[in-house]
Amino acid sequence: MAFNIAIDGPAGAGKSTIAKKVAKELSYIYVDTGAMFRAMALYCIRNGVNKNEEEAVSVACEQIDVSISYENGEQQVLLNGENVNGFIRTEEVGNTASAISVYGKVRTKLLELQRQLAETQNVIMDGRDIGTCVLPNAQVKIYLTASVETRGKRRFLELQEKGQKCNLEDICADIRERDYRDMHREIAPLKQAEDAVLVDSSEMTIDEVVNAILNLVAQAQQK
Ligand code: DC
């Protein structure tokens, strides 16, 4: 049977950095579900579909095919056959993804793909509703979080490193808004699954978090 690890948590908690490292250690496949929502958001932006209009976004869903493949172990997201990895990491796409992910049509479109990926292979999958909704039977579930200030500072340094102009206050405000929307939506909101282990990375290094998760996996595999 495939072994599944679910990592959920708010934006900027470090899920993808951590999940990638854990995947490498265990030779598991890393599945980034946020990237799938981002691909759908990119379609809406490119085609002038208003993210606030559920009907328009739902109709657009019928024109969208999202799939993933792997190149040198890195997940690639294909939007109607086009590799869009180079276009989905902007704030605009992230915020649009958060806005459209509240709609039922958008969520059901990606749910089947996510479940299929985890059915036959060992995966570590990150997102917002993996432990609660997508993979309720995952053998290990982590809820990874950090304070808004910590997440804001990490994001600020990341953008500065890329040479992008940014303001810490604005970044924190953005994070608060995204947290609120992801946690309060009607369908599959972000919350800690009852059987998930809470990891607060505010005062932890990346390696400490990775090791904590590897220990949880080892414990689960002994059962
Ligand atoms: O993890 P991320 O920043 O790439 O995700 C972008 C948005 O996509 C996030 O704000 C909410 C949505 N999302 C979701 O609703 N469910 C998931 N499993 C993953 C992401």
Walkthrough of the structure:
The chain has helices spanning 15-26, 33-46, 54-61, 91-100, 104-119, 130-134, 148-161, 168-184, 206-222, and strands spanning 4-8, 29-32, 66-71, 74-79, 82-83, 123-127, 140-145, 197-200. The protein is an alpha/beta fold. The chain has two domains: 1-28 and 123-223, Rossmann fold (3-Layer(aba) Sandwich); 34-121, 3-Layer(aba) Sandwich (Rossmann fold), CATH 3.40.50. Strands 2-6-1-7-8 form a five-stranded parallel beta sheet, with helices on both faces. It has a three-stranded antiparallel beta sheet with strand order 3-4-5, with helices on one face. β3 (66-71) and β4 (74-79) form a beta hairpin. α1 (15-26) crosses α9 (206-222) and α2 (33-46) packs across α4 (91-100). The model has no long low-confidence stretch (mean pLDDT 96). 2'-deoxycytidine-5'-monophosphate (DC) binds at residues 11, 33-34, 37-38, 94, 97-98, 101, 127-130, 178, 182.
According to CATH, the fold-level topology of the largest domain is: Rossmann fold
Summing up helix and strand content along with how strands pair, one would put the structural category as alpha/beta
General shape: globular
Quote the average pLDDT.
96
How far do the termini sit from each other? Answer: 14 Å
Major sheet characteristics? 5 strands, parallel
- Based on the coordinates given, report the CATH architecture of the largest domain: 3-Layer(aba) Sandwich
Reading the helices and strands in chain order gives: EHEHHEEEHHEHEHHEH
Number of strands: 8
**Ligand names:** 2'-deoxycytidine-5'-monophosphate
Radius of gyration: 17 Å
The share of residues in extended strands comes to 15-25%
Under CATH at level 1, the class of the largest domain stands as: Alpha Beta
Assign the CATH superfamily of the largest domain. P-loop containing nucleotide triphosphate hydrolases
Low-confidence parts lasting 5 or more residues at pLDDT below 50? none
Helix count, DSSP H or I runs of 4 or more residues? 9
Q: How many individual domains?
A: 2
